[in-house]
């Protein structure tokens, strides 16, 4: 089979495209004929070695896929040959990746794709939407009626955060560029704030005079000095991006309001947590409400170029990879 893989850590140029042996499913594995895979920032961290994880070489890159079941191991139940499926947790922790013609997925990390959902749309939202679910519900403990600020609301993760929080009965204050205003309001944001506005912080404060219950910043700025002042009593800050940031934390102002900060990486999520998120993501895909802001398709052989575009911030929407043939 053809695959995009690495034989050493390094820059995008270490990615090779060529033939590797087709994997054989073990007892609890499903062999998936891959239709499309996605490129995420975290994939570049694994490839470069910035985030250390078990990487057996040669190592197929990529986490997310949509495809069709080609074969199942003897212990697998619930999946049959021909089922359309998706996955968002390959390519780390010793699991070979998704950027190949075929991939092995353990059955507990594989989910059915709702009928009528385009493969590119599903694979593009798999990682960001799951991240959003974990941020809001698993780690953020979102409750009905709370006020949630989403910074970077126009992006892939931010859009999913707005939609999910609004669906859960939260009041959403979306912070993004002016060109995203109409879209994030349609997703359920009650208040929109242009991040370029010099008075953006005051506008957030005016929108939430009693304080913000949850603050999620997908832009990786992590300005904790400003954010802590915006929090309500027992407000929460959820950190999910900004691998190299080192912000100043006003500890006193944080603890006198019983506030908290929680950080998480989706790579640490258990199979059970991911499956719970997948159920919600699949429902939003099925009813047509969850779609990526933009998708940019490239052939699998251009995986190195895709990684370069993501690292340099030049990707035009979510990059997905399809087979060359």
Give short descriptive properties of this protein.
325 residues; alpha/beta; 6-stranded parallel beta sheet
Describe this entry's structure for a reader.
This protein has 325 residues and is an alpha/beta fold. It contains 9 helices and 16 strands. The protein has helices spanning 41-48, 119-139, 156-167, 181-187, 200-207, 224-230, 251-255, 271-286, 303-311; strands spanning 2-6, 16-19, 29-38, 59-60, 65-72, 84-87, 102-106, 111-112, 147-151, 171-176, 191-194, 212-217, 231-239, 260-263, 295-299, 318-322. Strands 3, 5, 6, 7, 8, 15 and 16 form a 7-stranded mixed β-sheet that branches.
Oligomer: single chain
Pattern of helices and strands: EEEHEEEEEHEHEHEHEHEHEHEHE
Based on helices, strands and strand pairing, what is the structural class? alpha/beta
How is the biggest beta sheet arranged? 7 strands, mixed
What's the count of strands? 16
Please report the number of helical segments: 9
Helix content: 25-40%
C-alpha Rg (nearest Å):
20 Å
Distance separating the two termini:
12 Å
What is the averaged pLDDT score?
95
Percentage of β-strand residues: 25-35%
Q: How would the global form be characterised?
A: globular
Low-confidence stretches: none
């Amino acid at each position: 089979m053809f695959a995009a893989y690495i034989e050493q850590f390094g820059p995008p140029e270490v990615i090779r495209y060529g033939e590797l042996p087709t994997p054989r499913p073990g007892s609890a594995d499903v062999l998936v004929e891959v239709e499309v895979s996605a490129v995420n920032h975290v994939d570049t961290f694994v490839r470069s070695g910035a985030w250390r994880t078990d990487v057996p070489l040669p190592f197929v890159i990529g986490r997310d896929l949509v495809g069709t079941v080609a074969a199942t191991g003897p212990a697998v139940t619930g999946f049959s040959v021909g089922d359309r499926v998706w996955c968002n947790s390959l390519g780390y922790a010793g699991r070979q990746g998704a950027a190949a013609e075929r991939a092995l997925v353990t059955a507990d990390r594989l989910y059915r794709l709702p009928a009528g959902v385009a493969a590119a749309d599903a694979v593009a939202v798999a990682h960001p939407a799951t991240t959003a679910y974990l941020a809001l519900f698993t780690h953020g403990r979102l409750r009905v009626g709370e006020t949630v600020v989403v910074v970077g609301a126009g992006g892939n993760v931010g859009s999913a955060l707005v939609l999910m929080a609004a669906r859960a009965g939260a009041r959403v204050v979306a912070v993004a560029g002016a060109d995203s205003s109409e879209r994030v309001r349609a997703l359920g944001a009650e208040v929109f704030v242009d991040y370029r506005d010099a008075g953006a912080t005051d506008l957030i404060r005016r929108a939430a005079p009693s304080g913000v219950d949850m603050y999620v910043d997908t832009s990786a700025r992590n300005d904790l000095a400003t954010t802590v002042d915006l929090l309500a009593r027992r407000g929460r800050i959820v950190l999910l991006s900004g691998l190299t940031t080192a912000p100043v934390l006003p500890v006193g102002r944080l603890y006198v309001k019983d506030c908290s900060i929680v950080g998480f990486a989706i790579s640490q999520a258990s199979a059970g947590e991911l499956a719970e998120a997948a159920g919600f993501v699949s429902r939003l895909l099925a009813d047509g409400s969850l779609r990526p802001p933009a998708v940019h398709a490239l052939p699998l052989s251009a995986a190195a170029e895709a990684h370069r575009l993501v690292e340099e911030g030049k990707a035009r929407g979510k990059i997905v990879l399809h087979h060359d043939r």
